[in-house]
Amino acid sequence: MAAINVDLKITEPWTHHVKVAMTFEVPENQNEFEVFMPVWSPGSYMVREYSRHVRRLRVVQKNGEFLFFEKKNKNTWLIDRSKSELKNLTTEVSVEYEVYCNEITVRTSHVNQTHAFIHGPSVFMGIKGYEDKLHHLKVEFPPIWTKLTTSLKDISPKREVFLYEADNYDRLLDCPLEIGCHETNGFRVEGKDHHLAFLNLPQKIHGDLRNDIKVITQKVADFWGEIPYEQYVYMGHFFPKVYGGLEHCDSTALQFDPFELGQEEGYFDFLGLVSHEYFHTWNVKRVRPVELGPFDYSGENYTKMHWLTEGFTSFMDDLLVFNCKLSNEDFFLKRLVKKINAYNKTPGRLFDSVEDASFDAWIKLYRPHENSKNSTINYYLKGALIFFCLNSMLSAEGANLQDFARLLWKRYKENPAEGMSKEEVLEILEKVSGEDIRNDFERLLVNTGELPLVESCEKAGLKVHFKQSEDHYWGCDFKNQNGAQVVQNIVLDGPAHKCGLNHGDEIIGAEGWRLTGESFNSFCKTLKKSAPVEFLIARQGRLLTIEVAPEKAPQEIEKLEIKDRALFEKTLLQY
């Protein structure tokens, strides 16, 4: 089969629809073939059912005849050439369809009057059995738009044509496109071009964004030892109240609140996001669990190893920004305190190991509900803290995580086509650290016991300061919802849980007082410590009274103090 030609047309962006035509040649003796739309995106482990946005699908052969097809399942269509009415078959066939694109996330496509962001899995169909074939992508868009940015290979014969080449279907899906009038800039690191394509970049930015991204790029590349691509694209969308990133082999899509970029903490957050997604260039896009590739785009791809893909990455992201001196130790330590406190406030850590949470990513992490924290743990969070513990253990023995990463990279280069098993990763760790640390690390992966976080802090030269809240502890959150105080997120075995408060209950009053979202906190200040309180609540239209006895709040970490600076720098500033 010659190259598969994909035409993407954006003619009426205000409708949020794009038109796609996939033209290819089929063998003369093959009458049936199947086309499919992915149901998920690599790097975002939830079935998203992209085919629900497809309309007006039709199949046309070169002589103009429309061919018979039928939908086999939610994302697959069977085309049968033997049912041609003209009985004059041609080998060239086109599958044409439209896709609705109006969701602004890094794992969906978004098209309107101002721009188009094309996320491959949500737009481009594949042909079963021909995924390894060369793909050519031609893009047409309104002349008022001036730029198209992507990491795909540009093979345009002239400036007026936007034609790109992908070695295979995986590559086509892995290279998002930003089209419009976005700002572009760039820099070079180790002789490689790095492009910046930013939409809605605000005027006020806390730091020198271009230079800071360049510094992070160099730092992460130095950590791994080499750059594995010819060019790289940082794609950024800046819209209020959005946050996210998705990694690709030689690009990343980033989304962030533009109003936060002018604030120190918000700016540091964005640099951490940049570091996180760029770190994935090695860790997951190349160094990967064996289950994550070749991809099955039609269903879940299960792995228990997201402690490596996301845990390792989530520990290194802010740490490498800190090592670049682009953030400061106050921010880094506060972020570490925040992570530890969040982990300790999650009862689900006692039920799911990080491996369990990884395997269940498809049904848990991306589908949170009011009881999620009581039943599972976030593998980004726990994975990062496990690697914090590992980093302290390694440093105490004169080793570090860079040694570990370099050996992972060496193994990848020896056999890039095949991912790694857990046993391979543990064997690599043992080479770096010895059998005892390997065994201790593996226990942290498979068990639900508490992590040695205080001990790991001490090994890093940090003293842990705890605090005890004097506020009433109800074991739930409250949300001011249209002036009413509504119960949220019941904590397992907390006062609210023990006494029968439910998520969604509305607090009408207490102890004879009418309460609102505004007056609730003031009322609580009048209560005696630990004295039971009779609440009047509304639940599904019924009025009920429930007595709740507040308890002493669980202890939290107030701050981390550097007690041994030399040890702190040896452990956390060695990269």
Could you describe the 3D structure shown?
The protein is an alpha+beta fold and 575 residues long. The strands form six sheets. It has a seven-stranded mixed β-sheet. Strands 22, 23, 24, 25, 26 and 27 form a six-stranded antiparallel β-sheet that branches. Strands 16-17-18-20-19 form a five-stranded mixed β-sheet, with helices on one face. Helix 2 runs parallel beside helix 3, helix 8 (379-396) packs across helix 12 and helix 10 packs antiparallel against helix 11. The longest helix is centred in the middle third of the chain and has 18 residues, at 306-323. The protein is globular and about 85 Å long.
Gap from first CA to last CA: 48 Å
Question: Count of DSSP helices?
Answer: 15
Summing up helix and strand content along with how strands pair, one would put the structural category as alpha+beta
Care to count the β-strands? 28
| Gross morphology | globular
Rg result: 27 Å
How are the strands of the largest sheet arranged? 4-7-2-1-11-14-13
What are the segments in which pLDDT stays under 50 over at least 5 consecutive residues?
A: none
At CATH's second level, what is the architecture of the largest domain? Sandwich
Percent range of helical residues = 25-40%
Question: Hey, roughly how much beta strand do the residues contain?
Answer: 25-35%
CATH class of the largest domain: Mainly Beta
How would you summarize what this structure contains?
The chain has 575 residues and is α+β, with helices and mostly antiparallel strands. Helices cover 28% and strands 27% of the residues.
